[in-house]
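Need a sequence for this fold. Nothing fancy.
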């Protein structure tokens, strides 16, 4: 009986691992500290695959789920300020509205599948930031926590927003 249970769990774990390896946009996690606060972001990583990304696959002026598949989440280990605006400790949906000259970073209380059920009335915080060019082409969408900021990079675009202890 014990061997059967162990075998079933091993097969389940292998299946989950195999499915994650085959996903076109695999799951990823960015964890770090910003001003002493633990920040964890769970997201999925789409790749450019020779497509125009910013202003193409990811249209300007529209809410983007900031990754692929499910809603990207940001989990804050303490009360913080994002670009100077207060935000309580907790786990939130992270959305963006990309633009050529300005991006809107959106923290929303909902965590649902993608941006399809996004509701602006559930926004907890919105801030504006300026995009920059990356040093080199970034094939796969990447989020990092570095230098007290969350940094998003894809294609030739980089966007960062500052986090400080609240």
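Here you go.
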């Amino acid at each position: 009986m014990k061997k059967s249970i162990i075998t079933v769990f091993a097969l389940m774990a292998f299946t989950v691992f195999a499915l994650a390896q085959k996903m076109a946009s695999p799951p990823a996690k960015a964890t770090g500290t910003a001003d002493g606060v633990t920040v964890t972001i769970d997201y999925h990583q789409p790749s450019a695959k020779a497509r125009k990304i910013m202003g193409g696959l990811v249209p300007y002026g529209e809410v983007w789920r900031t990754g692929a598949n499910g809603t990207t989440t940001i989990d804050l280990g303490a009360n913080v300020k994002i670009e100077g605006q207060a935000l309580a400790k907790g786990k939130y949906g992270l959305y963006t509205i990309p633009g050529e000259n300005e991006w809107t970073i959106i923290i929303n209380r909902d965590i649902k599948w993608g941006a399809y059920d996004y509701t602006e009335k559930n926004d907890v915080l919105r801030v504006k930031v300026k995009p920059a060019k990356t040093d080199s082409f970034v094939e796969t969408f990447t989020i990092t926590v570095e230098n007290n900021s969350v940094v998003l990079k894809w294609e030739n675009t980089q966007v960062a927003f500052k986090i400080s202890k609240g």
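For context: Residues 32 and 145 are 5 Å apart (CA to CA).
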